[in-house]
Specification:
The complex is a heterodimer of chains A (490) and B (294).
Chain A (H helix, E strand, L loop, with lengths): L27 E2 L12 H19 L16 E4 L4 E4 L2 E3 L4 H22 L2 H6 L1 H17 L2 H9 L4 H26 L5 H10 L4 H21 L1 H7 L2 H8 L6 E4 L1 H4 L22 H5 L19 H13 L6 E4 L1 H8 L12 H22 L4 E7 L6 E2 L5 E11 L5 E8 L5 E4 L10 E5 L4 E10 L7 E8 L5 E7 L6
Antiparallel strand pairs in A: 2-3, 3-4, 5-6, 7-9, 8-9, 9-13, 10-12, 10-14, 11-13, 14-15
Helix pairs in contact in A: 1-4, 2-15, 4-6, 4-8, 6-8
Chain B lengths: L15 E6 L2 E4 L3 E2 H20 L21 H25 L2 H6 L1 H18 L1 H4 L23 H10 L25 H14 L6 H19 L25 H10 L14 H15 L3
Helix pairs in contact in B: 2-10, 4-10, 6-10, 7-8, 7-9
Chain lengths: 490, 294
Amino acid sequence: MASSTLIDKTATLPAQQGGEPPRHEDLYAKRKQIYPKLAHGKFRMVKWLVMAATLGVYYGLPWVRWNRGEGVPDQAVLADFASEKFYFFFIELWPQDIHFMAGGLILAALLLFLVTSLLGRVWCGYTCPQTVWTDLYIWVERAFEGDRAARMRLDKAPWSVNKLSRKLGKHAVWLIIAFWTGGAFILYWHDAPTVAAGWFKGEAPLTAYWFAGILTLTTYFLAGTMREQVCTYMCPWPRIQGALTDEQALNVTYRYDRGEPRGPKRKSESWDERGDCIDCDQCVQVCPMGIDIRDGEQLECIHCALCIDACDEMMVKIGRPKGLIAYDTQIAVAARNEGCTPPKHKIIRARTLLYAVVMSVIGVLMVWGLATKSTLETNVLKDRSPPYVMLSDGRIQNGYTLKLVNKASEPRTMLLDIAGPGGLSFKVIGMDHEGSETLELPVEGFGVDRYRILVAAEAGAPRPQITFTVTDAETGEADVNMSSFRGAEQ
Amino acid sequence: MTDETKDIDKHSGVETTGHSWDGIKELNNPLPRWWLYVWYMTIAWAVVYMILMPAIPALPGMGTNTKGVRGHSDRVEVAKAVADLQSARDAQSVVLLDANLETIETDRTLQQFALAMGESAFGDNCATCHGAGGRGAIGYPALADDVWLWDGSLDGIEYTIRHGIRHDADDATRFSAMPAFGRDGLLTGSQVDDLAQYVLSLTDRSDDAEAVSRAAPIFQQQCATCHGVDGTGDRAQGAPNLTDAEWLYGGREENIRATIYNARNSHMPAWDDRLDDATIKAIAVYVHSLSGGE
């Protein structure tokens, strides 16, 4: 079906009315196996490099060590659920610091938006795990079964020892990669050397086996057999990205202004009367999504740019300039098609500016937050029941719980000072502090401790505020908490 | 393929399903077939599930729901989870059993464990009368203040929890009994009125000096044996201090009069047989922490 127009598909299709409803089977389409051909060129090279880098980071990162001192995990990146900490090189996040994680996710989302509005689906085409592992799996497939044509022949051929051994080899290597992938995942949640060794001895936690198993299966099926179906049917991003891209975004584009009218070229034919597209189908054959880029922007297109490589190679062979398929904007292609000069590409647009500004603001806030993150956190919770009690001598007593969080790895001694109206006295349950104004509270390294404090004051004071000041005895780092005192007012 | 029998939508070039509503036709953009298979699999799984697990509710004449061949029961699972939790706690409970109460309160780790355990046990068993946080109510002593009728030390609190107050079934229970002076005819109504004024005068709240002086000899004769000559009470006999700001049964004139006339001897059950030793110790530490105890 060699359509000469891009948008209006009806031109080549018979317009009919009536007819029978389709048979039931037609309501569900069988998946058509796609046999992507190996492309050669700069984008293919970029993709190999990105694959090496991303896989290298994924498999290698848990083994990177980072010394944090005695008794603290020395894994550079570790989500330590058991002790409720997240370690990322020099950053240590507590459950109380969850907003940093939220900030990181917001930054990542905005970066995705920004890149999409500038360069289309770069994420999908180069760095998405689905793309990277699928690419890796196709590489394995190619190693066992050959390139596109050989694979198609093999699948059509009757079963033989040759076919069986190639298929078995392919699936075996796929499973090994899948297992390696699932196994690497659990290294991020436990001390990597310990859990890796323990895993094979049956000493790892149940969740480690569970998640390694799940990730092994999902890797095997998503990258091995599901492939483009994941992008087309499961992933929400292709739908969302339609709202994030615009006619100014640099997308992988077939320049129909140059390519049309297309068709096979005879030796005698001159280039003057026709387009540069010779209908060689190379762009379709290398496409991992099984689409034709010449149909324009499509939901399925992950913008991996392999069709650019394939087309450029062909253009060189036939002696035409490269770039019939290239990163270009819709607006530029449309302008050239009309015979106008394409407008200058605008990188700075309202939406890119907005994303960049919001990203900068959040980035600055996060850096500021991380830089000034204190290693000491205190909270004072006032008893709600009873709000106060009257003592036998007529004084009023309120109960408080002081929560001390020491985010430093070494044990520290905190000085507690409680200030309020005159006649105030306090005691800390379980501590002997007769007659001393300030109180020494020991807190363990990475410790969370609770102290119960009773404060008594004379009745009649007008709504006194109680100030709890906790100071590090050595560094002087201090945290102040105010709390109300009830029952004294009359 | 017989294109002639298909209804192709003019605008999109896509085949329709032949369904038409008010002229609007449904396009047939086929779903992937594996979706259909996934759906079949869920149906197959539902059948397997109904065989394995309790699934079909009681039908008429069947008596009970189907049990499933795995014999799963949520009730059994819950009971097992509770038992597992108990045995997980046992490790630390044992430490509580071995340590004396002072050690528990001053050891940071033990204290945190005892307070957490004590707070939840207190909420389940004690807060019904004593209130959340031991706030107390009329007739139910506040545990968050500094007044202790019997003994506010850690050991004293533990003893009270174990043996209760005026709990007949326990020989070691804390016991005191104030006579019902009015109801039993030991004193006349006007004498009770005067005595109420006298008790008020102990906290400087009486404005009837004559009544106070009339009642003074009666107090010394009837009340001082237990409450003391100066009304400061005697813990050994379970007699409360009448000179402080705390009134278990209310401190107004009519409350005091009613107490003298009818007597008030409320009860607390003994928990020795109802709670295990570790829980009792944990509650003792928790109650002691509410006020600092004695």
